[in-house]
Specification:
InterPro entries: Glyco_trans_2-like (IPR001173), Glycosyltransferase_2 (IPR050256), Nucleotide-diphossugar_trans (IPR029044)
CATH architecture of the largest domain: Alpha-Beta Complex
Radius of gyration: 27 Å
GO molecular function, one term: transferase activity
Organism: Phaeodactylibacter luteus
Structural class: alpha/beta
Largest sheet: 7 strands, mixed
Distance between the termini: 43 Å
Order of helices and strands: EHEHHEHEHEHEHHEHHH
Number of strands: 7
Keywords: Membrane, Transferase, Transmembrane, Transmembrane helix
Pfam families: Glycos_transf_2
CATH class of the largest domain: Alpha Beta
CATH superfamily of the largest domain: Spore Coat Polysaccharide Biosynthesis Protein SpsA, Chain A
CATH topology of the largest domain: Spore Coat Polysaccharide Biosynthesis Protein SpsA, Chain A
Helix content: 40-55%
Strand content: 15-25%
Amino acid sequence: MAAKMYNSFVSVVCVLQHPWELRLLPEYLRNVHQALSEAFSDYEVILVDNQSHHGQQTAEVVAEAPDEVRHNVYLLTLSRPTNRNHAILAGLDRSNGDYTVIFEFDFYHKPELILQLFEASRSEGTDIVYLRARARQAGLYFRPLYRIFYAILRHYSSLEVDGLAHDTRIISRRALNSLLRLRENLRYMKAIYSIVGYRTSWIETEEPLHGRDAEPFGERFRTSLIAITSFTTFLRSLLLWIFLGSLVFLFGVTANALKVKFTGVDLFGNAGEPFSGWTFLVVLIAIFFATTCLNLYIMSIYLSNIYNEIKQRPLYIIESIRRF
């Protein structure tokens, strides 16, 4: 039994993404109900079914649960499977609690984590508390890709994204209201949490990251592209370096062509025989290459500015207002 009953309304959001989660759903609901009913005055569980071909089965599983368990359950069945981040947003949109907990199936056997997240938020005065893994469970070939991805996020954005953060977290009402203001079609939730700001902390867990959520490589690759293109300046910086490289190439090729024309020896000391018009053609190609790279870089700046304006992200978020 919980040592203390909190007079708070807590919403729990859960996304059903895989068939094995449907098999665990009855136990998930029982565990969550027991933990929440003992600790909070009111609660709701929002299930987001992101596997449309199992929608009827999910409804039947919920209907078979005891009355006291299913009484607070709301089932949202999406018309077609979508990105996991979008499915989470569907649940957050319908959350009514003072606090909202995104609770993954990976922790169905540890419902006490919900109370731990809540107490950490209250005691530390933080608006967002997430579970942090000690390690990432990934194949040997994927590990360097993850390191490169998070290195890009760190160096080409101002975001503070934890590469070992689980989706499971608690969000206060005011932080959730600010989060829902960012209505982006291309969503990477970990980056959006960082944009919203507010005081954030974490609780370490033994559960490895992505231990059971085996997303296909294509889905993870698309999510990475969304994060890199939407929340970093990496591609624009890359075009800048390509342009600078083209200038070095232009000067090098021009110097080499002129040296061969007048001395018959290139920059590396190799003998060469200049043909009529060869120097002009090489220099012209190098100039066009550098000009093309410059145009691409300029266009990337304009497109980046247009892209940021279209998103209409809030220029600032007020955490609190005090009058003295």
